[in-house]
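no rush on this but wanted to send it before i forget. theres a chain ive been looking at and ive put its sequence and its fold in token form underneath. i want to understand how the tokens follow from the sequence so walk me through it. thanks a lot i owe you, the record is right below:
>
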Amino acid sequence: MKELIACCGLDCERCDARIATVNNDNDLRKKTANLWSEMNHVQITAEMINCMGCRTPGVKTPYCGSMCEIRKCVMEKGFSTCGDCPDMESCKIVGYVLANSLDALNNLKIMK
């Protein structure tokens, strides 16, 4: 399970994009694309909803694969997750996720 904890601490195993990919569930891809499009005010298509997890080998959504500033920072610093960073709790990059998900913060603390 630990490798399915994203760089930010969110649980990729619970992510609808990963669930849709693993189960080849096109209805869930469409539902997720519509929800994420609305939430993020961008056009996301069902074809973009393919991901095996932030820190695992395999396909990633365009956001997770190349646009996520959190993942970029973790990779540049050579960390496994933000939990490895001594500045995690004061970090502005991951701060929004941690402020909105106690589970993410707890996951990162457990992985230290």
Remarks:
- The chain has one domain: 2-111.
